Amino acid sequence: MAEGRSGAGAGDGAGHEPAARQRRQRTRRRGGGAAGAQGSNRGGEGDGQAGQPARTPARPRGGAPAPLFAALDLGTNNCRLLVAQKLPGGGFRVVDSFSRIVRLGEGLATSGELGTAAMDRTHEALEAIARKLARRPVQRARFVATQACRAARNGQAFLDEDRARTGIAFETITPREEAHLAVAGCGDLIGEGARAALVVDIGGGSTELSFATRVKGGLRVQAWTSLPVGVVTLADRFPEEGHDATSRAHWYGRMHAEALELVRGFHRDGPLARLFGEGRAHIIGTSGAVTSLAGVHLGLERYSRAEVDGLWIGTDDTRAAIRRLLAASPAERAAEPCIGPERADLVLAGAAILEAVLDTWPSQQLRVADRGLREGLILTMMRDDPARAPRGGQPGRSRRKPAGRPASRSPLKPDSQA
Q1: pLDDT in tens, 324-336
Q2: pTM recorded for the entire structure
Q3: Going from the N-terminus, what domains does the chain have, and what CATH number goes with each?
Q4: Alpha-carbon dihedral angle through residues 287, 290, 291, 294, given to the nearest 10 degrees
Q5: DSSP calls for 28-69
């Protein structure tokens, strides 16, 4: 994990408490982070590095190492792997991870197909992942593809070709399962005094919105939807305009209006909506755009999952971070430590979607989740039947059919929508 250091704001003198550090202390006092996955990290997003995973799995006293579980999420923008070990007291410990921005869905909104350059980038990342998996004795694994492969005419052909290259057998999951897995991955971030939370998973090609309420023994997804808009598709549809603040404001306004029209169609009335009006529900945001905004808000010099995951941010502070980025040029956004060149043209598309949600669902605070679908996959497998014998295989290690078959049960209770 890349541990960050707070930096002084512009004009701060030597020996003064940096403004960013003061913001972190105030924000942490209002809720703090949740202790979900121990050792989980952002995994070197953008460069494919694995951060600082554990070198070897922990070994119970007098026995063999605890089994390893692997989850691979191939999205429209990112390709992300997590290898984890179940902890005796619950939760899991990250053993290895990998994340790379591949933009598999680049140009998909206009062409209807995955492009050659995008597929080549993704094949390269998946070959690196296959080599990682070959070095790990993984007991169970799920490898899932989401919106880009669902929507592209050549999506399944691409996955078939990659399986021939790497041995990784992907399953293309439905939007419903994608929404449920995001809730499973960050469900413990629901505030203690809240009756419900709206989990907002902003992806590259789609955005999943899920209402989750507390019930005895777990969580229940009461309603969900998958919106056909994500950071890559929105940025492709609305290329950045001009180099001055006025042009950028116009460009951002068009993206925001597009997202707002879609978001407002999701359950604005009824008892779940009233919980927001009564202050008994809040928003959980899980995406690279949300974690990047959190890093900007905190003024981090390097991204730090330990400081971002579980962070509470006031709605006004979230909008202030968006306005700061909107006032910046593309080069200035790329220079932000928690954004970088590969996210500079996407972060404001994600911000437009997030702000549309904030406009529709009034919540005084947003809780940031540097976790989501991968963690949901890991937890689902662990809860499903952790004592079951290994099934499937690993790329490069066995002639058996590669792992990746879906888990038979979900830790979430059935939701009210199909």
Answers
A1: 999 999 999 999 9
A2: 0.80
A3: 23-30+190-372 (3.30.420.150), 37-176+374-384 (3.30.420.40)
A4: -170
A5: HHTT-----EET-----TTTT---S--SS----TTSPPPPEE
